[in-house]
Automatic annotation (TrEMBL):
Region (Disordered), start-end ranges: 237-258
PANTHER family documented for this protein: XAA-PRO AMINOPEPTIDASE 1 (PTHR43763:SF6)
Source organism (scientific name): Triticum turgidum subsp. durum
Protein name as catalogued: Xaa-Pro aminopeptidase P
Record's keyword terms, sorted: Hydrolase, Manganese, Metal-binding
């Protein structure tokens, strides 16, 4: 068997954990085939390739089908049997059963009825009868609900269909309390079992309903059922559609072809109407994000005060122990729920692994001879945080200081950006890299991702990245990360990350009568001053650091006392 994975951290972990029965293929590296290329290379012509359609988006399945057809291979959608699940057997963990909860209106800002009304207006504008929503954060946002089925994300396994006069949530009823049931009833939302989604989609298709499906996220099983239902509907009228693939039947060892009606007639394949609406935060969501970031900043100030003292006293600490202690500081904050992702706690060379995850049996000790990178975040009842700081507990080398300072310059340049409305994020990416480019350095990840409000720490559609394919314009109310970095293999890693709120900027001019946008900082945690190579900074960059630290002191000091307060005072002094 082969494992295809996209990230260096995954490769390193896989090398340690996979048995000799596995071959690790480092996809994305030069000369390494993609999954599709590998299939076409090793399979004899005319092979049948089976997939679990619940685990592939419709777009991914379509891409796979098209690519393997070049070698006369056939894609089979195996809806009723998953080989991995069969091998797993009784040792497979049971599905999560944690209850869902209502996300209070004081945090959500807009009630469910108003959100559903917006979706229905979009259905009407696009000539659709129903939209199928399968992205878990979109379901949670639209219904003002939260759950805990997925680690680090307050979502729950579900589907949602919104029609012009009704809406249906497909979810395990055991997760729905009386309070949640009443909440849904008030908004006119019905409940059905999680598994009923396919039969409902099939019913809608067979009566000729036009469905809005986001094929980039809706799984291939739903789209396949919809298209086969459309084919039956159109067949009654002497018409037929195109075929996506074959679907395996548990009742018949052979497979049956299912046609699909032309998408212009019965299906609209387009980004979900919820995606963009969710990304533009309302006043209540913005207020919650600001408040949760201040509490998070207080927890981090207490943590950094603690760890500096521990290292100074030569207390042995592993990367895992550091992450565990940070969690305890956050747990003391009001409204804390869980971490928003696995903490990246990387000392020295481990910090150069972009998505490093320490484990008890393979982590390093944190000392004072190298850089320490800490990327962490939290889920609070009113907001989601994500922050990275890089520090040195001893004396940094000139090389480390120069690299850190150039990363900081990129961070400052992006933070200070002013740009016309309708500007996509990739246009701004160069600002974060230009200082590194001047000495021939760079980093292999995006500069910024969208962040949800008490939802997923990574959300779309916006981003700031060198990948120019994402044309989503940044809009007032969106939240993005600002996280340039530099990683020296087998030596050290540097990243500085704050979250930013996109805001409107009042300027003396308005070329073309359009608005201009900029950023407002949400993250307020000191940047280590001794890592800054001061002669590299311009007067305006020095002023930025001093003003930022002044804001940190003003906003966070009221939450602290004792040693952490003194630590904050020392670490926010002017350069």
């Amino acid at each position: 068997m082969l494992l295809f994975g996209p990230m260096a951290g995954i490769f390193s972990r896989a090398e340690k954990e996979l048995s000799h029965d596995w071959t690790l293929t480092r996809s994305g590296n030069h000369g390494v085939p993609t999954t599709i290329e590998w299939l076409n290379d090793v399979l004899p012509s005319g092979s049948r390739v089976g997939i679990d359609p619940f685990l592939f988006s419709s777009d991914a399945a379509e891409e796979l089908k098209t690519a393997i057809s070049d070698k006369n291979h056939e894609l089979i959608l195996i809806r009723d049997f998953n080989l991995v699940d069969e091998i797993w057997g009784e040792s497979r963990p049971a599905p999560p059963k944690e209850p869902t909860r209502v996300h209070a209106i004081k945090y959500a800002g807009v009630d469910v009825a108003s959100k559903l009304s917006f979706v229905r207006s979009q259905l009407d504008e696009n000539g659709c009868d129903t939209v199928v929503i399968s992205m878990l954060d979109e379901v949670a946002w639209l219904l003002n609900m939260r759950g805990s089925d997925v680690p680090h994300s307050p979502v729950f396994y579900s589907y949602l269909t919104v029609e012009m006069s009704t809406a249906t949530l497909f979810v395990d009823s055991n997760k729905v309390s009386e309070e949640v049931l009443e909440h849904l009833k008030k908004a006119g939302v019905k409940l059905k079992s999680y598994e009923a989604i396919l039969s409902d989609v099939e019913r809608l298709a067979e009566k000729g309903a036009k469905l809005w499906l986001d094929s980039s996220s809706v799984n291939a099983a739903i789209v396949s059922v919809f298209r086969s239902g459309c084919d039956r509907y159109m067949g009654k009228r002497g018409k037929t559609g195109r075929q996506i693939g074959k679907e395996a039947s548990s009742d018949d060892p052979t497979t049956k072809k299912h046609g699909v009606q032309n998408m212009e007639l019965n299906g609209l394949y387009k980004a979900s109407p919820v995606t963009l609406a969710k990304s533009v935060k309302n006043e209540a969501e913005i207020r919650g994000m600001k408040n949760s970031h201040l509490r998070d900043a207080a927890a981090l100030a207490e943590f950094w005060c603690w760890i500096e003292e521990e290292v100074r006293n030569n207390v042995a600490l592993t990367e895992v122990q550091v992450a565990e202690n940070l969690l305890e500081f956050r747990r003391k904050q009001d409204g804390f729920i869980e971490t928003s992702f696995d903490t990246i706690s990387g000392y020295g060379a481990n910090g150069a692994i972009i998505h490093y995850r320490p484990t008890p049996d393979s982590c390093s000790s944190v000392g004072s001879d190298n850089l320490f990178l800490l990327d962490s975040g939290a889920q609070y009842v009113d907001g989601t945080t994500d922050i990275t700081r890089t520090v040195h507990f001893g004396e940094p080398s000139p090389r480390q200081k120069e690299c850190f300072t150039r990363v900081l310059q990129g961070h400052i340049a992006l933070d200070q950006a002013v740009f016309p409305e309708r500007t996509p994020g990739f246009v701004l990416d160069v600002l974060a890299r230009s200082s590194l480019w001047k000495i021939g350095l760079d980093y292999r990840h995006g500069t910024g991702h969208g962040v949800g409000a008490a939802l997923n720490v990574h959300e779309g559609p916006q981003s700031i990245s060198y990948r120019y394919g994402n044309l989503t314009a940044l809009q007032k109310g969106m939240i993005v990360s600002n996280e340039p970095g530099y990683y020296e293999d087998n030596s050290f890693g540097i990243r500085i990350e704050n979250l930013l709120l996109v805001k409107e900027v009042n300027l003396a001019n308005s070329f073309g009568g359009i608005s201009y946008l900029g950023f407002e900082k949400l993250t307020f945690v000191p940047i280590q001053r001794k890592l800054i190579d001061l002669p590299l900074l311009s007067p305006s960059e020095i002023n930025w650091v001093n003003e930022y630290h002044e804001q940190v002191w003003e906003k966070v000091s009221p939450f602290l006392s004792g040693n952490p307060l003194n630590w904050l005072l020392v670490n926010t002094r002017p350069l």
